[in-house]
Design goal:
By secondary structure, the chain is α+β, with helices and mostly antiparallel strands. It contains 6 helices and 8 strands, in the order ββαααβββαβαββα. Strands 1-2-3-4-5 form a 5-stranded antiparallel beta sheet, with helices on both faces. A 3-stranded antiparallel beta sheet has the order 6-8-7. The longest helix has 18 residues.
């Protein structure tokens, strides 16, 4: 396996985005157990399922060289959320997604982290299109997508077990992203 030290760490004005670690479990579990936080992204999860998801992210970094990051406050180290490049088997495209701890909503963390992840996806991963799969009722995520310069592209379908959920595919091309360069 690739050593963790070989994986990227992204920094923004307020955040450190790093590859998830087993030590993140308590923070991930607390956030993903919150009904409001998870309302549009699969529903609240039991700790055992969060553990599986966290291990999946860690494994995806090793197997594919990308997955979501753990985001922490640069000064306090407080957990902010998980976000970044993501494209499981059967996904409708190469996604930059986000899930922010509810107490941090409305403070610009989603946009700040997503901008860094968009740069990473285009400049390092070489993606030609970046999508965001968004529940039609999730106005907060649509707002983040709009701030990134993304727009509604098409209806989408996720693979099982999320194949019954209605999603909208938002996004933009790498060329469009480069022209805006937030």
């Amino acid at each position: 396996p690739q050593p963790m030290s070989d994986f990227p760490t992204l920094t923004t004005e307020r955040l450190i985005l790093r590859v998830p670690a087993a030590s993140d479990l308590d923070d991930w579990a607390e956030t993903m157990a919150d009904v409001e936080t998870m309302k549009y992204i699969g529903g609240a999860m039991a700790r055992s399922m969060v553990w599986r998801g966290l291990m999946c992210m860690i494994g995806a970094w090793h197997a594919h060289g990308f997955a979501m990051f753990t985001a922490r406050d640069r000064v306090s180290g407080e957990f902010i959320g998980r976000m970044g490049p993501w494209s499981p088997d059967g996904w409708p495209g190469l996604e930059v997604g986000w899930a922010i701890k509810r107490s941090k909503w409305g403070q610009g963390y989603g946009s700040e982290a997503a901008i860094a992840c968009m740069h990473y996806a285009v400049d390092v991963l070489g993606w030609s299109e970046i999508i965001h799969t968004i529940d039609p009722n999730n106005e907060g995520s649509k707002g983040v997508a709009r701030r990134l310069g993304s727009r509604y592209l098409r209806p989408g379908k996720l693979p099982a077990p999320h194949d019954k959920a209605e999603v909208e595919v938002w996004g933009q091309s790498a060329q469009e992203w480069r022209m805006k360069r937030l």
